[in-house]
Amino acid sequence: MGWLEAIVLGVVQGLTEFLPISSSAHQLIVGQLFFEGHDPGAAFTAVTQLGTETAVLIYFWRDIVRIIKHWALSLAGRLPHSDPDARMGWYVIVGSLPIGVLGLLFQDAIDSTLRNLWITVITLGGVGLLLGLADRMARTHRPKELTELSWRDAIIFGLAQACALIPGVSRSGGTISAGLFMGYSRPAAARYAFLLAIPAVFASGLFKLKDIGSDSCVAWGPTIVATLIAGAVGYAVIAWLLRYITTHTFTPFVVYRV
User: What digits encode the pLDDT tens for the residues 182-205?
Assistant: First the structure.
């Protein structure tokens, strides 16, 4: 992989990670355009996601610190377990289990079979239509907020996130769709999707670090550049998206996916 390709893929990762349009699908498609039919690889995608997830840590730093603090204090008995932030800590842990378990069980398929462009095409269109349906249904009732999150909902969110192991589904697209189907507001579903992704993305990215440099197409230098660019662009996208969805629907993303 050359430096130009790394820069372009870093920008693509940053632009698409948080929008419900699947960053892994875009990495796969754009990467194959550059490599004349060769996939840049699951390891490169996972590691560059460390950059965008670092943007989440920075953007939600105060919330994350407060959640961790209250969760730890509840374990020590210094805060009630019913504390909203303490419960959110548990919800993020429980919601992260499905993608962790399924990611380990189907690691080989994720790295090979599931990165087929026909599968990517089907999931881009299919999940796009589901997102459109969920968005339309969400307008018919009073939306729920994260203070109403339950154990059942956290597990459903987690299962939806696990579907993003398939390129084209979209981590944010899957979790936001699940949230809208369950009656959550767009900002609430998106916010929880961002928080829920932190453990899974960091675990996946750190696990895949060992594979960088083992393929002649993916060296350390370009990977680091792509990761840094992805983080910077991703931060701007988070800020824009959270403002956008307070007054707009997901229809443009549905059309784009299809």
Answer: 999 999 999 999 999 999 889 888
